[in-house]
Amino acid sequence: MRITVDDGYQMYLDGRELSQGANWRSITEYDLTLLMTPGRHVLAINAFNDYFAAGMLLDFQVTLADGRTVDIKSDENWKVVPEDVRNWEKLKQPQSGWQPATIITPHPFWISGTWPEDYIRVPRFQPLVIPFWQTGWFQVALASACGVILFVCIALIFQLTLKSKEQRSLNQERARIARDIHDDFGTRLTRLILEGELAQNELAANTKAGPRLTRINDGLRDALGAMDEVLWAVNPQRDTVRDFVTYICEYAQEYLQPAGIQCRLEVEPDMPPLDFDLPLRRSLLLAVKEAITNAAKHSGATSLSLKIHRQDASLAVVVEDDGKGFDPAQTGGERNGIGNMIQRMSEVGGRCLVISAPGKGCRVKFSIPFTRQPSRLGWLTRRWRTKLESENKSAHPPASKTAAPKKFKA
After folding, report:
1. What is the pLDDT of residues 47-87, one digit of tens each?
2. Residues contacting residue 158 through CB under 8 Å, at least 6 positions apart
3. What's phi and psi for 298, nearest 5 deg?
4. DSSP letter (8 states) at residue 83
5. Which of 312, 307, 302 is nearest to 370 (CA)?
6. Which of 79, 194, 242, 310 could in theory staple to 98 by disulfide, Cβ–Cβ 3.0 to 4.6 A?
7. Other C-beta atoms lying within 10 Å of the C-beta of residue 112
């Protein structure tokens, strides 16, 4: 393609600017071979003159693949774009109201002997390589992915806000319940204990009602202690690892002192106030209490060690005594509460490991995460027990009232 314009021009091919020129005294030759892909193309020239009407001379020769030649010249087949049309260079076809170009007599200086003064050959244009991240499909896919991510983030923020609000409401309700229990039931139990002790003091010595009244007072004190434990678990201000460690250490010392067992505490220093979910805290508390109770009742130990430390995102509690020990392989699942401790830990995603041997004491290690992660083992255990119970019921249906009792030898 050869072109010159009085005074200057901008050349567009399929909406993309290829080149500019500003010297009407020279002719510029372009090689557009690599840009002429099969299909329809649109060539647009923005010709302009600073003082008079702009003029253009153009000759565009195209050789097709089948050998035919197309020669496009600057004639009346060109359309002139009105000045108020925007983005005209990107249009695929001219609008109906556009006027054809006007063929005028060449200006005298164009046919003078001094023209052209120069002939410029521009290197062959290379095809435009568009990176995949600049293609339309990638940008649409990226915009869609960003929209999905934004929607998910908004949904998560909404759920987090709703969950935080529900958690605040739950904590307020727990605090109210703990306050009501303390102010109402705690006061009533304390009053009953005082009246029972007063009645016990007023009774004559060696009366038959004395021992009964003593058992009643002891039962009321046990109930008051159990209520304090429930209040500690319900109170949202105690939902931290530090509070749990403080409570279980105090409990172990108070429980083992009347039994004459020395309690050694090995607690990780500077335990942080990490959140500790109520179900996990409650399950671990009951399991540790069961282990301490077993040691006090059955081990015959003189000392007990309570070790508490962190392991990554979980809490480890070890209860170890120097008692007579036992053989875990020869004990039933329900003896010493071992089965209950293992099941309680598995249901909340924790672990319980019991190590013992005759004459070598007993070591019980509990490991439980700070946040609740339901264990599949606990789910499988419950499902297996439910299935076993249903099979036992189907295999041994209850006898009717009129049936004679059957005798068997175990």
Report:
1. 988 887 788 899 999 998 898 999 999 888 899 999 889 88
2. none
3. -120, -20
4. T
5. 312
6. 79
7. 8
Burial of 294 (0-12, 13-18, 19+ CB in 10 A): buried
Cα–Cα dist 305/321, whole Å: 6
- The model's pTM is 0.48
CA distance 378 to 389: 16
Long-range contacts (CB closer than 8 Å, 24 or more residues apart) made by 242-250: 242/271, 242/272, 242/273, 242/274, 243/273, 243/276, 244/276, 244/281, 244/284, 244/285, 244/315, 245/271, 245/308, 247/285, 248/285, 248/288, 248/306, 248/308, 248/317, 249/306, 249/308
Q: Enumerate residues 6+ apart whose C-beta is below 8 A from 203.
A: 209, 210, 213
What radius of gyration do the chain's Cα atoms show?
47
Q: Which two tokens stand for residue 45?
A: 């020239």
Beta-carbon contacts of residue 310 (< 8 Å; ≥ 6 apart): 241, 268, 271, 316
The parts of the chain modelled with pLDDT lower than 70 are 105-115, 174, 180, 182-186, 204-206, 233-234, 236-237, 331-336, 372-410
Both structure tokens of 398: 């209850």
Its sign, for the CA torsion 263, 267, 271, 273, is negative
> Which token pair is 22?
């500003």
Task: Identify the three-state secondary structure at position 211.
Answer: helix
d(CA 27, CA 74): 14
